[in-house]
Amino acid sequence: MFIPLKKLFLFMVIMGIACLSSAAVAAPKPVVPLDKLKQYQEINVGWVDLGEDNYKLYGYDESNKKEWKELLDGNNLENFPKFLKGYLPGKTINTAKSINETPAAKGLVITFSKAIYTQQTSSVAQSLFGIFAGSDALDVAVRYTDGQTGVEIYSTMVNVTSRAGTSYGSMGFGGRVTNTFDNLANYIGENIGKNINE
Question: What pTM was computed for the model?
Answer without folding.
Answer: 0.79
